[in-house]
Amino acid sequence: MSKRIGIYPGTFDPITKGHLHIIERASKLVDELVIGVADNPGKKPLFTLTERMEMVQTDIDNMHHKHCPIKVVSFSNLLIHFAREHEATCVFRGLRASSDFEYEFQMTGMNIRLAPDIETVFLMSSDKWQFVSSSFIKEIAKLGGDISEFITPNALQMLQEKQR
Predict the structure, then answer these.
(1) Residue 140 DSSP SS3
(2) 0.90 cut: is pTM over it?
(3) Is 43 a catalytic residue?
(4) Is 19 assigned a catalytic role?
């Protein structure tokens, strides 16, 4: 039987506890998980690609419940091409609310046309993390709110340093 490799892509600007919860759950379903940190300047991330890679890697290293090897890799090409480069059989996507579904549904439809052999697996966010997004985290932090409940101490420290 071949090795089951999954991809969990994202911008992770910053990585949240919701992301980490999806990563932990996805790691139960594959033999190896690749976290794809997207280099997408069009999204105008607050953190550089190098900073986001470091943040994600540190948080993965500090995870208590990893059920398979997890590696962090950047990518700037088409997700399906990235998945093929890593011999992935599936792409994990987290869904928070119905608003996520429209975009994810369209993307999945296109990915099926481009690569019918790569499955998309949707993991619903825990109700604890359904409202958490990197965008909200950055906005709340910018306005002086307490975000420590939603991100790790590592991500919090990097965000605070970035905002100075």
Answers:
(1) helix
(2) yes
(3) yes
(4) yes
